[in-house]
Amino acid sequence: MPKGPNGEKRPADAIGLAVMIGKIATGEIEDERESLSSAAAEMGRKGGKARADGMTPERRSEIAKRAAAKRWADKKP
Q: The whole model's pTM is what?
C-alpha cells in the first residue's frame, strides 16, 4: 500500500480511495491528517503571537497599514 508524505497509508486505486473518503465522511474511521493540521495551526498561532510581542507598536501599525493598502488595492476596478 502506498504511503503519503507523512507516512500514512492510503489506497493506491481510485475506488479504494473513494471508499476511504466515504468512511471518513460518515465517521466510520478517523482521518489521521486532521490531528497533524491542527498541530501546525497551533504552532502558527504561537509564532504569530511571539512575533507581535517582539515588535514595537509603531512597527505593528506600519505592517497593518501596508496590509490594508494591499487589500484595498486589489479591490479597485
A: 0.40
